[in-house]
Structure formats: structure tokens, C-alpha cells
Design goal:
The complex is a heterodimer of chains A (271) and B (168). Chain A is α+β, with helices and mostly antiparallel strands. Chain A has two domains: 29 residues; 227 residues, Thrombin, subunit H (Beta Barrel). Chain A contains five helices and twelve strands. In chain A, the strands form two sheets. Chain A has a six-stranded antiparallel beta barrel. The longest helix of chain A is centred in the N-terminal third of the chain and has 24 residues. Chain B is mainly alpha-helical and 168 residues long. Chain B has one domain. Chain B contains seven helices and no strands. Chain B is globular, with a radius of gyration of 16 Å. Chain B starts with a helix and ends in a 6-residue tail after the last helix. Classes of the chains: A alpha+beta (271), B mainly alpha (168). At the A-B interface, helix 2, helix 3 and strand 2 of A face helix 3, helix 4 and helix 6 of B.
Chain lengths: 271, 168
């Protein structure tokens, strides 16, 4: 017994070192698996608040670009509206905008921290459980998808960006129904990869890739990017496609989160 | 609490703020950031209690991790260089370390440079190996380590030269 205690005292620095290293490795390994890294995260009051404060001061410098983006989005929506106005009133199924009974609800949020230079990138937004944002909700901009909410606190949420090696999102071709999963190889923040598109698919550079609505997270038809290049995999059964994103991932100001109405219903069917 | 302790605590806080608010957003060439918060570990007193030093370094790394959403990679890297700092000091400064007379502000440039290189390289190798966490990307790990180390070493040497205390 005496010897054990002596050993502990003699090696206390080394043992402490091993303990701390072990702890940090556990955090690291957790952060590499999806939905586990709840403990060390920037959604807490302290770092979230500090980032919010930093963002509210640096926001002014991006106002011009943000305005132009809003104008472009308005223009786009107005064009769609004019198509609808051209239809006869009876063609349009009237929906009461006050009722909440629509399949998807969009909530706007401000990005207060955005990474794109690491292998596992996360985005922090300034809405949380108080604004009824919960894990597994999709996040988009007017141009295309950004990621999926992974972790929430009262006032902040962390979004797992599509530029993250753990991110897997169903996506497919706009012109056909073949779909695969969207991943990122960590190299270029403008290029993501689409895997497991069957070789029967007919592809062309410049084809549009959209979300395919096969999960409850994103509705069908949200833009992702265009095909930059493609090749068959080694055993020639699937295409590996490089996709040029619509979004500039290094310049994201405001985003929308998507809440699906039918998520409970679909989940109960799947179980 | 004497003046020196206060100085180290202030340095701890200022370095974390500078690192997370400014330096993590540089992204030079798309992905290069200097990690100068380890100056705290470089400049910690030679005769500090080793257990305390390990715990403080771990907390430093963990705070950076919290801001950067990187799990525990900085914590691991900091703990490792904190543990191996005596070895680095002994191999660089030799006898004057044994007599505990080393002051980083008044050693020769070459020795200070060697010490910074040794610590920064160790830190960055651990950091990027854990961050990328995939040995099929070994070339990416080496590339990021070397380029980021260069960046960190240059900035660290500049900061050390700028904030040198004149206690001649």
C-alpha cells in the first residue's frame, strides 16, 4: 500500500498529464461523431454572447452587400408573385397566412460565427430554443442550403455546416430522381462532393443539384450548386461528382431555419 | 497575489480574446491561422508548480476549443506542450535552465528562436493530427502543420520582441 502511494506521489505530474490528455481526447473523439459534441460548444452563454457582441459591431461593414442580396431576393420573389398574379383567382388555392398550418415554417436568424477553413466547420446563429429552434432543423439562405442545426441552447444554436466531414445530406439531380449523399472532402470551401449517384444517371457539367426531400429536414427543391466535374468511382458503379456551391460559404449574413410540420408524423411511421 | 501573477492572468485573458476574436478569422490563403495563444505557455514562469501549469494549460486549450467548436484538440495540444516544456527548455538552454536563471527576455536570439520553433511545431503537429483525425490525409496534415507553424512562429517572435520587458 505504502508503495502504491509512493508511486502515485512520485509520478503525480505524469498521471495528471495522462488524465488531462485522456479528457481532451474524449472531447476530440466526441466532436468527430455527429450529435455527440454537446459539452464543449460555443452555444453557451459566455462564448455565444461574446460572439453576438462582436458580430453586432462588425455587422455595419457588411450592410451594403447584405442590402444587395435582399434586393436580389425581393426581385426573385416579385417575379414569382407576378406569375401567380397572372393566374385566375380560382386557380390559386387561397392560404390564410395567419394560420400556422403549412408544411414548412421559416424563421430568420443572424449568423454570428462562421468557420470554413477547418475540416469540421460549424456556424453559430443567434436564435435558440426560445425561438423554437431545435436540433435537426435545416438551415438555408435564399441561394441554397447551409447545414443542419445540431445543438441548441436558450438563445443560440450551432449549425453543422455542409463543410463538415460529418455532414451527410440527401441531394440529387434537378432533372431526374436519382439521388446520393452530399459530403465534403475538406479541401475547397466552394466545392462539395456528391456520392453514390448510380452510373445510369445522365450527367452534364453545369447541371443543377437540389435537395431531394427524402428526409424531413429539407423540403424538395432547395438549391445546392452546379456540377463542376464528375467521374466514375473505382469499380465503376457510382459517380463521384464535384459540385460548385451557389452560396459563398465564407460570406453568410442571414439565414432561414426550416421547421417541418409533419416531422412527428413521418417519424412515427418510420419507427 | 503579487504583480507577476496578475500579469500572467491578464496575459491569459488577453491572449484568448485576441485569438478568438481576431486571429481565428484571418484565414490567410483560405485556411492559415496563427495560434499565438501558446505564448502564455512559452512565457509561464520556469519554477511554476507543474501540476498547476498542466491544469492551467489544459483550461487555456479548452477555452479556445469552446470558442472554435473544435472538441478538445487545442486542449490536447496544450497539455502535451505543457508537459514537455521542461524537456524543451533543458535541451535549448542547457545549464542555465538547471540553475533556473533563464528569462526569455534576456536570452540570445538564436536560443529563443529554437525554443519557439520546438514548442510551436510540437503544438501544431498534435493540433492538426487530431483536428483532421484521418491518416489518409497525412499530406494535408503535414502541409497545414508546416505552413501554420511558419505563420505562428513569425507572429510569435514579433509579439515577443514587441512586448519585451526592459529589466536590464
Amino acid at each position: 500500500m505504502q508503495q502504491i502511494i509512493n508511486f502515485l506521489i512520485k509520478n503525480k505530474h505524469f498521471l495528471l498529464f495522462l488524465l488531462l490528455l485522456f479528457l481532451s481526447l474524449i472531447f476530440t473523439i466526441q466532436s468527430h461523431s455527429y450529435h455527440k459534441s454537446k459539452f464543449i460548444s460555443s452555444t453557451n452563454f459566455f462564448s455565444g454572447g461574446l460572439y453576438g457582441w462582436q458580430n453586432s459591431t462588425s455587422d455595419y461593414f457588411g450592410l451594403k452587400g447584405e442590402n444587395e442580396r435582399l434586393l436580389a431576393e425581393n426581385e426573385n420573389l416579385r417575379n414569382q408573385l407576378s406569375v401567380l398574379l397572372g393566374l385566375k383567382p380560382t386557380d390559386i388555392k387561397k392560404t390564410d397566412t395567419l394560420s400556422f398550418d403549412k408544411p414548412y415554417t421559416f424563421t430568420k436568424a443572424r449568423v454570428i460565427k462562421n468557420d470554413y477553413s477547418k475540416i469540421d466547420n460549424y456556424i453559430l446563429i443567434d436564435k435558440g430554443e426560445n425561438d423554437s429552434i431545435f436540433p435537426d432543423m435545416g438551415v438555408i439562405t435564399d441561394k441554397g442550403i447551409i447545414g443542419i442545426v445540431e445543438n441548441t441552447s436558450k438563445n443560440y444554436s450551432r449549425v453543422i455546416s455542409i463543410l463538415n466531414s460529418n455532414s451527410r445530406i440527401n441531394a440529387g439531380l434537378k432533372k431526374s430522381n436519382q439521388y446520393g449523399s452530399l459530403v465534403w472532402n475538406g479541401k475547397d470551401p466552394n466545392i462539395v462532393q456528391l456520392e453514390t449517384i448510380p452510373r445510369q444517371a445522365i450527367l452534364k457539367e453545369g447541371d443543377t443539384i437540389i435537395t431531394h426531400g427524402r428526409s424531413t429536414i429539407f423540403p424538395r427543391g432547395i438549391g445546392i450548386g452546379t456540377i463542376a466535374s464528375y467521374k466514375l468511382n473505382q469499380n465503376k458503379s457510382y459517380y463521384l461528382i464535384d459540385i460548385k456551391l451557389f452560396n459563398d460559404m465564407s460570406d453568410i449574413g442571414f439565414v432561414y431555419t426550416i421547421k417541418s410540420r409533419d416531422i412527428e408524423e413521418i417519424k412515427s411511421l418510420e419507427d | 497575489m503579487n504583480k507577476d501573477t496578475l500579469l500572467h492572468i491578464t496575459r491569459f485573458i488577453v491572449l484568448i480574446l485576441v485569438q478568438t476574436m481576431v486571429l481565428n478569422h484571418i484565414n490567410f490563403l483560405g485556411y492559415l491561422n496563427p495560434y499565438i495563444y501558446i505564448i502564455f505557455i512559452l512565457l509561464a514562469p520556469i519554477n511554476i508548480n507543474r501540476s498547476l501549469f498542466l491544469v492551467v494549460s489544459f483550461m487555456l486549450g479548452l477555452t479556445i476549443d469552446m470558442f472554435g467548436d473544435s472538441g478538445g484538440v487545442h486542449a490536447a495540444a496544450c497539455t502535451i506542450i505543457a508537459f514537455f516544456r521542461p524537456i524543451a527548455l533543458r535541451s535549448v538552454f542547457g545549464l542555465s535552465y538547471e540553475f533556473q536563471t533563464v528569462k526569455l527576455s534576456n536570452v540570445r536570439f538564436g536560443e529563443r528562436f529554437a525554443y519557439v520553433i520546438l514548442m510551436v511545431l510540437t503544438h501544431h503537429i498534435v493540433l492538426f493530427s487530431l483536428e483532421i483525425f484521418n491518416f489518409s490525409h497525412i499530406l494535408l496534415i503535414i502541409k497545414k502543420t508546416l505552413l501554420s507553424s511558419l505563420f505562428t512562429i513569425v507572429i510569435t517572435m514579433l509579439v515577443l520582441a514587441l512586448f519585451r520587458r526592459n529589466n536590464s
